[in-house]
Specification:
- The chain is α+β, with helices and mostly antiparallel strands.
- It has 24 helices and 14 strands.
- It has five domains: 95 residues, no CATH class; 189 residues, no CATH class; 122 residues, no CATH class; 28 residues, no CATH class; 75 residues.
- The strands form four sheets. Strands 1, 2, 3, 4 and 7 form a five-stranded antiparallel sheet that branches.
- β5 and β6 form a beta hairpin.
- The longest helix has 34 residues.
Amino acid sequence: MDVLAQLFIALSALLTIILLAVMAQRLLGVRFGALRTFVAALAAFALAQPVLTPILAAFKVPADGRLPDAGALGVLLLLVMAMVLIPMVLLVLAEALVPPGSVPGPVELLRSVRGRLSRARRYSQITRIAVKHGLGPYLRGRGERLDDRPGKVRLARSLRLALDEGGVTFVKLGQVLSTRRDLLPPEFVEELGRLQDKVAPAPWTQIEPVLTEELGGPVEEVFAAVERTPLAAASIGQVHAARLPGGEDVVVKVRRPGIEAAVGKDLDIVRRLAATLESRTRWGRSLGLRDLAEGFAAAIREELDFRVEAANMAAVTTAAGTTGAGTTGAGATGARTTSAGTTAAGAAGSAGDGPAGGVRYPAPVPVLCTERVLVMRRLSGRPVTEAPPEDGPRLARDLLACLLRQILVDGVFHADPHPGNLMLLDDGTLGLLDFGSVGRLDAAVRSALQRFLLAMNRQDPLAVTDALLEVVPRPEDIDEAALERALGQFMARHLGPGMDSVQMFTDLFRIVTAYGLSIPPEVAAVFRALATLEGTLVRLSPGFDLIGEARAFAGRHLAERAEPAAIRETVTQELAALLPMLRRLPRRVERIASAAEHGRLALNVRLLADERDRRYLTGLLHQVLLTALGATAGVMAVLLLGTGGGPQIMTGVSLFHLIGYNLLMISAILVLRVLAPIFRRHRKFED
């Protein structure tokens, strides 16, 4: 056989395979991957001879291949449907047994193997650290239950040492947990609060290329001067003092080179560990470790992108109606570094009721802020934990008023107000730093939260219930009377004089969960921020009355809303929205009355007006129709195959038998057409 003939045969085979693939996919009505469809058609082509040979033998085709016209047409149709049926069966079986994405491709497989090896090394390292500090049994869910304080203190210390040795991600995880007094016992909160996110600074030879690449030119051209020795260094970034060409003092926060890869790997391990502990341990389920890990991972990813932090600072400052007014720092000794390496630097406006200006926010230099570099105007100060004890209550009140105003009035709030993100400025005010995590609320949610807080201040269970059901999506079936009683008991337990607020947020979440309420993410961020704030306020001023001060703020806010100017503005806004409707109301009432008087009043109801509902109903009808046709064809095929007599097409095969075989093939094709979308939808629901 010459080369031309071989090429013709190969081309014919390829065209046949492509035709089989196209026909199988069109008949199934589901879009499969090109590779999967081609492999199924190729397998059908390879199986054609062993599958079709018994069929031809069963029909006893004469040696010369001659058949009556009707017989030839029937056998040809049967063979074609059998050929197409093979890839259809293979595709449906593959969809049911090996859904797309369950088996990685070669490139994904190679990456997966490399990732598993890298993760295994890190797992081994973390396991050694845990075992070294006596945490191995707790990772397996077999640790002893400690009820005595000395045992809890020892376990908390072991956990702190293990997290500290684990590196940047685990240190930050411990810092976040140290503020969650609503989740952890006091021994753990106190011990984890000692975690320090301080590491040796990266050499200037590694930092300068990052600055040059991100700022688009040599450092000497962008800044008039830059200190090569950092003011402070943390695991994600480090901060250098600098001066702009105009003479303004700033600080430059630079992300460590290569830190994103290490953090990404550790975050993946944190999520996997959280899922394992939640499924295997009772304490993991009670804490909801999976959700905590996802929220922590999202916050860390935002913290790695300094553009997010710059935008957040600008948003908070703009929402508060403040303007930047940078001040000059007093040297490196006055710098304060947050957990991400952010020096307390920035011009800010003020908020709160403090005599020295309340709380101030950093102000970035937008033209010099990139993904890995953040430039801010500089302020000087010291750690807030070094504040004099007599200033603690004032600072705590200022911070609480600032955050409540951000949440309830401005709609843009700092979502992580832990002590590492605060500093005491030289003028006695607070500096709120590190805006890598910020929450946003729309006007409707803010209004509902305001009503919720004011109702809590009045201890009105009915108003609290109504406001809460405006904050969260209202379920279709909810026992509002029981919810009102639960909230009334909650307020009696936590809003009385001298009551401790440690368990307040935990109990509120329990009520929300018990009644099947789903808290939107933006509202959940509010509760998390308030829970974190509670721990910070206690650090600033032990014994601080969070509930009393929050109720006082609610009273002041209510007084502000009751001022003549505020009432006048509210009434004006409501009238502006109501006036167009009032102007159209008489005409509409007159039209309705006229139509009713003349008997023309009718009610127009459109069923299935939504296009999605029509598409769903049409698809459902198609599936039912195909199922009925497939079942009918199958029943008719069985009846015809069992019927004797009839015109003989060939030896031993009547016309009834030939039609029955074809109907059987048609029934199989229709059934596969119904099954393929079912398996595809099932996979989507699982995803």
